[in-house]
Amino acid sequence: MIKKAVYLYLAASLVCTHAHLQAQDQSPFSFGWKKISATTAALTATAAATARAIWSTDYCSAHNGDPRCYWDWQQEPTEETSFPADFVFGAGTSSFQVEGDSDNTDWWHWEAECYPDGTPHVQERSAQACDHWHRYKEDIALAKKMGLTVFRFSLAWDKIEPKEGEYNQKAIDHYKDVIATCKEHGIKPLIGLHHYTDPVWFAQKGAFEKEENIADFVRFSTKMMAEFGHDVWLWATFNSPSGYAFHKYHLGDFPPGIKGDTQKTIEVYKNLCEAHVQVWQAAQELNKQNGSAIKVGILKNIMHIDPWRQWHPMDCNVSRIAEQLQDDAFFSFFTTGTFNGKVTAFGVKQLADVVHTNEQAPQSLDFIGVNYYSHSYMKNTNKCNAPFETATQNETYTIYPEGMYRAIKKVNERLVQPIKERIGKDVPIYVTENGIAANNPEDRLTFFKRYLYAISKAIKEGINVRGYITWSLLDNYEWRGGTDVKYGLIKVDFENGTLNRSIKDDAGTAYLMQHALQQRALQQTSKNV
Q1: Which residue has better confidence, 337 or 343?
Q2: Which residues contact 258 (CB under 8 A, 6 or more apart)?
Q3: pTM
Q4: Which of 20-24, 125-129, 168-172, 224-228 has the lowest mean pLDDT?
Q5: Is residue 248 a contact partner of residue 287, using CB atoms and an 8 Å limit?
Q6: Rounded distance, CA 320 to CA 305, Å?
Q7: Looking at 422-484, which runs of residues are DSSP E strands?
């Protein structure tokens, strides 16, 4: 039976490889023995990749042998969800999405432009967004009321350094007051140094396309850590470096809107990872000079790409390539010091060739943030969602809580444990972004109950997860989704233009608040003992 299955896989792999080559006018049957030899190598690589995709421990060990892991939620004891006493709850924002009037960013100008066919890049412009720049005190007070003890927000590089090398002291003072307001309310700031947007002057220089531009970001980051370092709980260099690179240079739906340039995508990804290490090194120097204890991490997006048909070589190979692009070089860089961005499709077509080494990379994580929402399936070369999963306002995401457990397991097995084994450093995990823009209010309860259960389950299995930071504190400007896609714990009245705030009254928000208030009370009690 096993032998028969192997023959079927080899035959199917040959068909898929031939079809792939033929589509590029490279069919071995048209080019003689030289191409037949190349196809033999391609077949071997394809069959091996298929086997890895189906049988690898990365897919299977955590999910009972099925990459399309599903739990029986009638049997899972969600009522037993609990967290260690020092586990923190928080919520996040990003400067562009909430502050408003970010007219010195590449995104602001992108909003005003169109694609070549005349279609606007976005249907709704960010404008004043939530006006958080002027209403942050109210927003932080509401965060405390909900029991949150962490506020994740990003600094607006474009407002702080509007021109290269010129700093706006009023903007710096503004963030000093934001941090002070957090402290007044017993809330820890987790500050992001970069969240998808670039100052216009930096974008005009080529942003992170060019390795020499890393110095600009390191200079800015060093100044910010020197200004605020003593009062900031944790620093995050980048929000989802893979997301930044892929949206800008592969999908083309973020500025500069380049589509399908895999080589440049991986080069930018590499530069972001290298920039992180250099910022971490700058933090170590500041710690030595000032006696501070600056801690720096990076926020890694996990988006599971699963084969729709486990037996189908094309589904398995393409899903594997997708995950390889997102994950492999990142995990390699921060565990071995080598960014291995060599990506080959079907063993024959080279998509990218980027290799970079920095021996300090494995030392450079004081924590790792996990951003996780959902997964998608790959059917042939097309992404698809499972029709039996609950859809959300974000068409990319369905409710898939099992994936939270898988994401934490993946980061632990491919990053945290290897770093521990190789250099002896403990890297705590924080879930730094996760949330739902629900089509129906009742879906929010299902979401929070099951996703928090998945985190609790991972913790009880011994994984060092220290906190949960939901996206987002406020209904905000969700990029191409505008203000129609509503993730917030706090409702913002965009419809009437008042931007008035109110804590959402659905059962899901109440469930999250229940856990947050309980944890805040536990931590307050232990502080008073």
Answers
A1: 337
A2: 248, 249, 250, 252, 264
A3: 0.89
A4: 20-24
A5: no
A6: 8
A7: 429-433, 465-471
Burial of 474 (0-12, 13-18, 19+ CB in 10 A): buried
The count of C-alpha atoms lying within 13 angstroms of the C-alpha of 48, restricted to the half-sphere facing its C-beta, is 9
Q: 475: Cβ–Cβ under 8 A, 6 or more apart, which residues? A: 130, 483, 486, 487, 488, 490, 491, 492, 494
**Amino acid letter at 490?**
I
CB-based contacts of 224: which residues, under 8 Å, 6+ apart? 155, 160, 191, 193
Coil, strand, or helix at residue 299?
Answer: strand
Taking every pair of C-alpha atoms in the chain, what is the biggest distance, in angstroms?
A: 80
Query: Kind and range of the H or E element at 302?
Result: strand 296-307
Residue with tokens 């501070």: 292
**pLDDT on residue 529:** 61
CATH architecture of 60-528: Alpha-Beta Barrel (3.20)
Domain ranges of the chain: 2-55, 60-528
Residue 208 DSSP code: G
On average, the pLDDT of the chain sits at 89
Tokens of 232: 């900031």
CA pair distance 17, 19, nearest whole angstrom: 5
Rounded to an integer, what distance in angstroms lies between the CA atom of residue 158 and that of residue 217? 12
| Three-class DSSP category at 311 | coil
